[in-house]
Design a protein that fits this description.
Elements lengths: L3 H10 L8 E6 L3 E6 L3 E6 L2 H18 L9 E4 L6 E4 L4 E2 L2 H5 L3 H18 L4 H6 L7 H16 L5 H16 L8 E3 L8 E3 L6 E4 L6 E3 L13 H10 L8 H23 L4 H11 L2
Antiparallel strand pairs: 1-2, 2-3, 3-5, 4-5, 6-8, 7-10, 8-9
Helix pairs in contact: 4-8, 6-9, 7-9, 9-10
Length: 288
């Protein structure tokens, strides 16, 4: 990817900002991110949807930054037209499952407590405030239909017969939960291992990033990623969580975790991502 057009925009908007080194951690489907001198992160929305919502994201994160117990992006460099912005980089290591497994028991318990406090606070952001800043409300049946459509288009034809049967069985399970009652709230909606950071000594969580897919939805979706760290992690976080709960909460979170694996594998194969093997390994592990 050619970073120069983005760098020109940064230099034009912030002429006093000096930097030497530029890294491009990724160019996603929705945003481009640049890291300057391992100190600043600048995000540029690509699609019209995200360009329109970016000014509202800045306002929301400003409110959440003062409220949440774990650091999140705090935009200090905002383009005059609010088309892009930069924040101080949250440094650390992403909380991968293998990394978590190697942490001390004391550190694991601290991370469980931190995540419980983080989600408890996140899920209490006033819904009227969220709606004022154009946070969309997701509907379970539409979300289910979208995932099923992705599965049929991207993945169904590439799975072996036994794998297809397991995937189809999961969709039947998910369909059975479409009428589960739940209290909707503000959710991150894209919480996964690459968006959670821990300190370099691996003792605590130091940041959560990427609120681009924020929504008003079922709070169990933010628990889906926690299954990466095992059932004990999920149960301990849920026990300390003070947000909205219901009888099917944990089961829905696990179903969403597995649906997320299918979505990851299908998209990786369709777009020929380099992490397709990792996605397939996840599929084999959790769809035994």
């Amino acid at each position: 990817m050619n970073s120069e057009p983005y760098l020109r925009r940064i230099r034009k908007e912030f002429p006093s900002l000096k930097f030497k080194n530029v890294q491009i951690p990724f160019q996603g489907m929705d945003h481009v991110a640049l890291i300057l001198d391992e100190r600043w992160v600048f995000r540029f929305p690509l699609k019209k949807k995200y360009k329109d919502l970016f000014p509202h994201e800045i306002v929301l994160l400003e409110k959440l930054y003062r409220k949440l117990p774990i650091p999140i992006p705090h935009y200090t460099h905002i383009a005059r037209d609010r088309s892009f912005g930069g924040y101080g980089m949250i440094t650390g290591d992403s909380l991968q499952a293998k990394t978590y497994a190697q942490c001390s028991v004391k550190s694991q318990k601290r991370m469980q407590q931190q995540m419980a406090e983080f989600l408890s606070e996140l899920h209490t952001l006033p819904i009227p405030f969220a709606k004022k800043h154009r946070v969309p409300t997701l509907e379970k049946k539409k979300e289910y239909s979208r995932r099923l459509r992705e599965h049929r288009v991207y993945l169904q034809q590439t799975l072996k017969k036994g794998e297809r049967l397991k995937a189809n069985a999961l969709f039947k399970q998910a369909k059975a939960h479409l009428d589960d009652p739940y209290k909707e709230c503000f959710v991150h909606c894209d919480l996964y291992v690459d968006h959670i950071f821990i300190d370099t000594k691996h003792t605590k969580i130091v940041g959560v990033i990427d609120f681009g897919d924020r929504a008003i939805y079922d709070p169990s979706i933010d628990f889906a990623v926690l299954w990466e760290y095992g059932r004990e992690f999920v149960n301990n976080v849920y026990a300390r969580y003070t947000g909205p709960k219901d009888e099917q909460f944990i089961e829905r979170s696990y179903l969403r975790f597995k649906l997320g694996i299918l979505s990851w594998l299908g998209t990786a194969r369709h777009r020929k991502w380099s992490n397709e093997k990792e996605a397939y390994d996840h599929f084999k592990k959790y769809f035994q």
